[in-house]
Amino acid sequence: MELQLEYPPTPEGAPDHAKMAVEAARNISQLDLDYTPQSLAKVDQIIEGLRTDGAGPEQVGESLFAFGCYVGEVFVRNANGKWRLAEETPMKEISGFPIVVEVANGKFCNPIGKVFKRLLDGNVDELEFFYQSFTKADASGEAEATPDPEVAQPEPKKGFWKRMFGG
Known about the structure:
Blueprint: H1 14-29, H2 40-52, H3 57-78, E1 82-85, E2 99-102, E3 108-109, H4 111-121, H5 127-134, H6 160-165
Antiparallel strand pairs: 1-2, 2-3
Helix pairs in contact: 1-3, 2-3, 2-4, 3-4
């Protein structure tokens, strides 16, 4: 399986993929996504709908990638996250996708991988909780990145993105 993406899977292309997810949510599901952490519950709703309909990554991979970029943009816009090439981060061997988000204190998360896992695993991988786990405030009120143990595993398995992107 290889994804046919309209924009490159790069930090610069991620906002364009996210915009496609916003447009798809509005046009197909009549849901407005506003890049707030609360909007991630709507993305969960969309992904759960795909899951309930029996869609797999092979059928909706491009859409999942776009929604993963949307989740990443929520980190960028609300938690001072920054898109990074996975190969230039400590996640290069485990991310499963070419781009990840750097969050507070130099920690990294994989929102694209998390969206794929959300489709495969259901509610146990809720996106709103994923965001909250990486942006918990410490006692001083500063946002602190908290690693999700599932992010440290290949998503959904090692080399997945290389098969998807032909790399």
